Every structure is written in structure tokens, then in C-alpha cells.
Amino acid sequence: MAIAEPKIVYQRPTSLATRVTHYCPGCTHGVAHRLIAEVLDEMELREKTIGVAPVGCSVFAYNYFDHDYVEAAHGRAPAMATGIKRMLPKNTVYTYQGDGDLASIGMAEIMHAAARGENITVVFINNAIYGMTGGQMAPTTLPGMVTTSSPGGRDIESMGYPVRMAEILSTLDGAGYVVRRSLHDPNNIRKAKKAIRLAFETQERGLGFSLVELLSSCPTNWKLSPVDALQFIEDKMIPMFPLGDYKVNPEIGKLRV
Amino acid sequence: MAIKGWIEVDELHCKGCGLCVAACPQNVMSLDMERLTPKGYHPVHLHADGCTGCGICAIVCPDAALTVFREAKIKA
Amino acid sequence: MAKKLYKGNEAFAEAAIRAGCEGFFGYPITPSTEFLEYMAKRMPELGRAFVQAESEVAAINMVYGAACTGKRVMTASSSPGISLMMEGISYIAGTELPCVVINVMRGGPGLGNIAPSQGDYYQMVKGGGHGDYFPIALAPSTVQEAVDSIALAFDLAEKYRSIVHILVDGNLGQMMEPCEMPPMQPLRETPPDWAVSGAKGREKRILSSIYIDPPDEEVTNLRLLKRWMEIEASEVRYDELHTEDAEIAIIAFGTAGRVASTAVRQARAEGIKAGLFRPITLAPFPKKEIAALAKRTKRILVVEMNTGMMLDDVSRVIEGKVPIEFYGRLGGVTPLPDEIYDEIMRISHNIDAPAPENPRMEWVTRLEKILEGEN
Ligand SMILES: Cc1ncc(C[n+]2csc(CCOP(=O)(O)OP(=O)(O)O)c2C)c(N)n1
Ligand code: SF4
Ligand code: SF4
User: Residue A28: its chain B contacts at CB < 8 A?
Assistant: First the structure.
């Protein structure tokens, strides 16, 4: 037999900084970060990318990537990204936002960035909860779900229903690419990465607003083990937030990556 | 003969969350209860032969703590 | 260059363009809207960025993002819109970014009205947003001065990586006045060494207002304070009219200052030694100069289009060394030169009277009488 030489199947992407994240063990915020870094590496975008960090658990996202980053006010990342992109149209600009950030306090900013067809990419982490502030109800919290501000479970009579952002945003003509993916198993993570890639491809081609909603875990505030939290995504979140392509510009639809 | 693979664990980044352990199709990973990382977690390790270098553990790892290798056959 | 007739807001907008403004983000609100409309036309013509945002909250956060690129960027709004912008203004201050915010002030609080006012003095001069920071605040009193103050505002913003507020009111924004436009300035070619542009061939850059460890925030607050002290020492600006020998010195800014200057000239024509001290920088406030004025004058009259906000600052500087009186009109009412002239005459007849115990309270009594007469 011939001599065996090791081949690297996977290694840490260079767009990721070496800093250890402050995320709880098993939190899939980390997976989302990794996928973004992998895509920026593959597309060789690192040197022209400017990220916009939100307020939420990912408030320090800027520490974890090895490219330029700014830090927005709570919910305003799409407006801030708009300002950057309009001044530097050749740069790649993306926001990274949680569900409280994007779907509650930042609802106006995300809707209008999409309506304007702002040529930015949004990575939207839907974990059905406010992580950073200790597990309060988010606009995406499931009916009946117990949080620190819905201690008896989310009562739809008085607290309303979860908001499905991908579906809502896909109705806007300015949106070029809007999909929902999940981070709960290897197969879905692969699909999520491909979606992030296509979202950045949308931006690079000037095809308008792109957003990838990612169902993500919060083991700490869901009070589940990291492994059980992934099961919760599959069993409880996906039925409420169906995975799928809500809007895909035909040019992107044809792309093979 | 089965393909041979192995992993390298970056103990600075591994938080011992166990997601890779649950995902590993060969069931050859476990947390090393004998050891602690600088941050105080039990790091993951390979406890048995059988790693094929499929890379699935690295796909689920939230902390990009794993490098995955696979033996490549070179034609003589 | 020859003078041309301009509407205030349009003149300010053209001046901003000539000062090298590369990004404007705003939301319509009377009485500042012509600024936005002018930018909507001119900025795209020049290949520069213009966005009508979905709200003032979004507008200022677009300015925030745009300012991160190190280019000259700004917004213009009016009182209720500025209130919405205070979040972003605080973040811009915390991130130490240069930008210019113009407030064409109107009557308030609340929705108030669209008439000229100076009721946003505290908001614009003291900060208005949360946290420990110091905005620079300029208060021009003519269209020409406002035009010139815009280039100055951008220069100061860049020099100190600071937010610069320009306070004008609906009078200035709406009036037609001849003015001379400065020449078009070339745009900055290379971004400053703190701006984000993509980490090509250099370390990554982070722009943020977070200092999660209190000792880091403390150092930052101290840095901002020291920068502010430098600004206080070198950037005070003001204008004076007949103050050398004035026995009655009026202190007023913006439109109130302009109206007061007419009253002062009228009084001088009658042989009354009146003068006007007009702060152009409300922050930094001309403390030393006002203290010096207090030494050579007999009585001070503060005139404002609010309930006496700058009055508080003047009182603090003067420390009771000379009697202070106050005259103000409120709610979008602009005082007439005659009203101020009457005040000068009243004071001149009582020039040696004891100092009013509470200038604001005595003014309220006088104003209520005037209001009875007007109705
Ligand atoms: C104006 C403002 N209001 C409230 C807060 C407090 N706050 C910080 S993070 C957060 C919620 C974040 O939740 P989410 O966007 O879902 O992100 P996660 O932490 O779950 O990743 C809130 C309410 C704030 N920082 N600013
Ligand atoms: S609190 Fe939840 S979302 Fe935040 S880092 Fe921990 S697990 Fe992740
Ligand atoms: S998934 Fe990553 S962080 Fe979690 S145990 Fe495995 S190597 Fe460690």
C-alpha cells in the first residue's frame, strides 16, 4: 500500500479571531459565527467586510471575527449598516442580530432596510428568547413557553403570537434573498452555511437585501442541556418557524455553490 | 480497510458542551473527565479507534475547537 | 463671490455640501424639511449619499454608521425629531465619531408647534442623550453666519472626534436672506486612521461605545472630559456690539440675539449705553468673557426664546457680581425689537435699583401683564 499522508478535513476559518467566545457551552451562536467566517474565507471577502454587531448575547461579536466591525445600538444595526454601505458601496456589509434586537426593538429598521432593498446581508439568530438579559420573552417566544417575563408560559390572549420574520420580510420587493434555516444538526448546519453563502452572493451581485434566519439554541435560558436544546429546535421551533426559501432572486436560485 | 481519521482538540476553545460527542456517527468521542481546559471545562477526546475523519464533529462545534484529519492514499 | 438670495434651510444645505458633506440621512419635519428636500436633489447629482430614513431614530443610526467610515456626514431635524435622535447621538459621542446635527428648533414640549423657539437649549447644549459626554453647540444668528458655521462645525467635529450641534430656529430656517456661499471644498481622499474600511493589509478595527469594565469606561469618560477641557480652552466664539462702555449689557443668542441687536442700536440712538454680548458657541460657553463683561457693566439683561435656560448658565458665571434681569418669549413667540427696547428703557430708569431677587419670577409678572395687554 502507498504511504498515507494526512489531509485536513476541517480547520478553524481565518476570518474567525482566536479569542475564546463568551457564549455558554453548546450555544449555537458559535456555530453561526463559524459559518459566517467560513463563507467569508471561501469568498475571500474578509479584507473588505465590515460587520455590525447587535445588542444581545452577540454584543461582542466584533471580538470574534478578524475583520472590521462596528457596534450598533439595540435594534439599529440595519440603519447603521445602511449608513456604512451607502458611504462604502464596494465593501461587504452585514449585520448579526438576535430576535429581540431584530424583531422587537429593531422592527422598523429591519423592515425598511429590506423595503429599500438595501444591499446588505443580515444573519438573524432566532432563539425564541432574550438571552443576554436573562431569558425574557421575545417576539419569537413560542405559545406556552415559560420565560422570566412570561412565568406562566406565553399566553397568546394577552401576549400575542410569535412573529415570523422571514415570511414577513419576504413580502417586500426590496428583498433579494430571504430564507430560514436551523442549526440543530450537521445536515441543517450545512444547509445554513450554503444559505449564508448565497446571502453574501446576493450582496456581491447587488441584488438587494439578503437575510438568513437561523433557528438557534439557548441552552442556558431554555434550561436544557446543549444536546436537548437542539432537540427542542427540531421538535418545537421548526413547527412554528418552518424552514424554507421564502424569497430567492432567480439569479441566485441558479447559482451552484 | 476502513478510512482512518483523527481529530485535534484546541483546548483553549473547547467548552466541553458535548455536541460533537452526540453527533459523532462512530461514537468514538467523549469528554475527558480526567482533564480540565484552561477555562475549566472537560475537553473532548477520542476514546476509541474508529474515527473516519468525517468532520461531522467539527460541523456542529460552536467553538471551532476541532481540526479534523484524514489519511489520504497516494498512488504509488 | 457675489451674494445671492437664499432660503435659510437651503443655504445651510448647500453650505454643508460645499463643506464636503458626503452623506445626509434625515426625516421630514417642519421647520427643517427644506434642508432634506434640498439634499434629496443635490446629493445624488454629486454622487453623494442621501437617504430619507424611516424615522429620526433610523436617520441618526445611519449617520452613526456613515460616520464610522470617517467621511463628513450629518443630519438636520427639528425638536421632536432631535428627541428621537438622542439615542444615536449618545452612541456617536461614546464611539468618539465626528458628525454634525442641525436642530431647527420649534415650540414645545411635545408636538408643540412649528414656530421658532429656543426651548431645546438644554437638550442641545448640555447633551440630551444618556451618559457623560459634551457636545459642541453653535448658535448662529444670521443665514450667513449659519452657512459659515457649517464648515466650522465639520472642522471642529473632525478635530476633536466630537458631535457638533448647530442650533437655529424656524426664523433662520425659513427666512430669505442674501448670503455668500463658500467655495466647494475638495473631498477627503484618505480615511482617518480610526475609520472602518475593510481590514486590508492592516489589523482589524473596531468602533464601539462599549466599555464593559467600569475602569475602562472611567478612562474613556476622563478622555472625553480632557478633550472637552481643551475645547473649552480654545474654541469659545462670541460676538459683541457696543459692549466696551455698555451700562446695560444684553446677553442673547441666535434669533433672540439678532432681535436684541436692533433694540441695542435703537437705544444707542437715544443715547442709552446699551450693548449686546452674543455667544456663538453655547458649548463651550464664553464664561471668562461674560465674567469680564460683568466687571465693566452695571446690569445684565438675558433675552431668550425660552423660560430662561441660558439664564442659568449666565447666573452661574456672574455669581451675583452684577444684577441680572431676564426677558423671554415662549412657545414659538419671537420677541419684537420694541419689547427688548422697552426692557432696556425700564432698566435704564432703574439702573441703580437693587438686584432682582429672582430675575425669572419678576419677568413672569411683567410677561403676564404684557400678555393681558396683547389679548
Ligand atoms: C434601548 C435598550 N433597551 C434595552 C436593552 C437591554 N437589552 C440588552 S440585550 C436585550 C435583548 C437581546 O435579546 P436578543 O436580541 O434576542 O439576543 P440574544 O441575547 O437572545 O442573543 C435587551 C432587551 C438595551 N441594551 N438597550
Ligand atoms: S444565554 Fe443563551 S443565547 Fe446567550 S450565550 Fe448563553 S446559551 Fe447562548
Ligand atoms: S462541540 Fe466543540 S466545544 Fe463542544 S465538546 Fe466538542 S469540541 Fe468541545
Answer: 62
Which residues, at least 6 apart from A255, have a Cβ–Cβ distance to it below 8 Å? A198, A201
Q: Is the pLDDT of residue B74 over 90?
A: no
Domains and CATH numbers, chain C: 4-234 (3.40.50.970), 239-374 (3.40.50.920)
What is the DSSP code string of chain A? -PPEEEEEEE---TTB-SSPP-SPTT-THHHHHHHHHHHHHHTT-GGGEEEEE-SSGGGGHHHHBSSEEEE--TT-HHHHHHHHHHH-TTSEEEEEEEHHIIIIITHHHHHHHHHTT-S-EEEEEE-SEETTTTSEE-TTPPTT--BTTBTT---HHHH-----HHHHHHTSTTEEEEEEEE-SSHHHHHHHHHHHHHHHHHHHTT--EEEEEEE---HHHHT--HHHHHHHIIIIIHHHS--EEEEE-HHHHT---
Burial of C217 (0-12, 13-18, 19+ CB in 10 A): middle
Gap from C84 CA to chain A (nearest CA, Å):
13
The pLDDT of C19-41, averaged and rounded, is: 98
Give A37's contacts in chain B (Cβ within 8 Å): 64
CATH for A29-253 is 3.40.50.970
* Domains in chain B, CATH or no CATH each: 5-70 (3.30.70.20)
Residue of A132, A142, A233, A237 best suited for mutating to test ligand 1, as the one with most atoms within 8 Å of CB: A132
Q: Which helix (H) or strand (E) holds C348?
A: helix C337-349
pLDDT in tens, A44-98: 999 999 999 999 999 999 999 999 999 999 999 999 999 999 999 999 999 999 9
Going by C-alpha positions, the residue among C84, C65, C85, C81 that lies closest to residue C73 is C65
Confidence bin at C324 (pLDDT 50/70/90): very high
Whole-number Å distance, alpha carbon C207 to ligand 2 midpoint, is: 24
**A23 has pLDDT over 60:** yes
pLDDT score at C374: 81
**How much is the pLDDT for A63?**
97
Distance from CA of A157 to the nearest CA of B (A): 37
- The predicted model scores a pTM of 0.96
Q: What is the mean pLDDT of chain A?
A: 97
Under the banding of pLDDT at 50, 70 and 90, the label for residue A215 is: very high
Contacts of C275 (CB under 8 A, 6+ apart): C240, C241, C242, C243, C244, C245, C246, C248, C249, C250, C264, C297
The domains of chain A are located at 29-253
ipTM for the predicted complex comes to 0.96
